[in-house]
Design a protein that fits this description.
single chain; 7 helices; elongated; binds protoporphyrin IX containing FE; mainly alpha
Length: about 170
């Protein structure tokens, strides 16, 4: 069932154009990498503040207010370019272990963000405008986030080295 969806994506006009054009995939992947640098770089700033090891002169509230809008824009660009690369070789990517784990970690990173938003950071505005230690739950969310994003980048990098033609049964 899933394979027929991946096959359908592979046969779309966009999939064919990206696959058959020599320079389109490298350009899309370059934009993917640039967007990733912005996503992971900006999230690392917030996570290191949550862990209390960086930007200690700024409150978490002020930092997230300034940083997260660019994170979301960069994430949208990373997801769109990732999807375009995916459809150009959907069946093989979908059966690639590193791609599967990367997507799993992306889902876990999103769940961790929701945990911070609705639980650990719910009272972020009351943490005061001045810098200071963050609650344990916030440090947990920050540490988990940083670990997940480092893994996402590592597994993302490994996809290209391990991609093999998937022989459907
Ligand atoms: C913000 C979230 C994401 C991060 C941090 C990320 C990270 C990465 C990294 C580090 C690479 C290797 C790039 C290189 O060195 O050439 C990569 C490649 C790739 N990513 Fe993502 N990615 C993200 C989102 C996505 C999404 C949502 C998809 C698909 C639905 C996706 C699909 C791919 C594909 C197909 C490749 C190409 C592998 C190849 O053939 O070289 N990515 N990603």
């Amino acid at each position: 069932m899933l394979d027929s969806i991946f096959r359908w994506l592979y046969d779309t006009a966009a999939g064919v154009v990206i696959r058959e054009n020599e320079s389109l995939f490298p350009w899309i992947e370059s934009i993917h990498v640039l967007a990733i640098v912005l996503v992971v770089g900006s999230i690392a700033f917030v996570d290191l503040r949550l862990l209390g090891v960086a930007s200690r002169d700024r409150s978490v509230n002020a930092l997230t207010r300034d940083v997260l809008p660019s994170t979301w824009i960069a994430f949208a660009v990373a997801a769109l370019t990732g999807l375009l690369m995916f459809i150009s070789n959907a069946v093989n990517y979908a059966h690639n272990f590193y791609f599967q784990i990367k997507i799993l970690f992306l889902v876990l990173a999103a769940a961790n963000m929701l945990f911070f938003h609705f639980v650990a950071g719910r009272d972020v505005a009351t943490w005061g405008a001045v810098a200071g230690p963050t609650p344990f739950k916030a440090r947990l969310a920050g540490g988990t986030s940083l670990t997940l994003w480092i893994c996402i980048v590592a597994f993302g990098r490994w996809i290209g080295f391990t991609l093999q033609p998937h022989l459907s049964g």
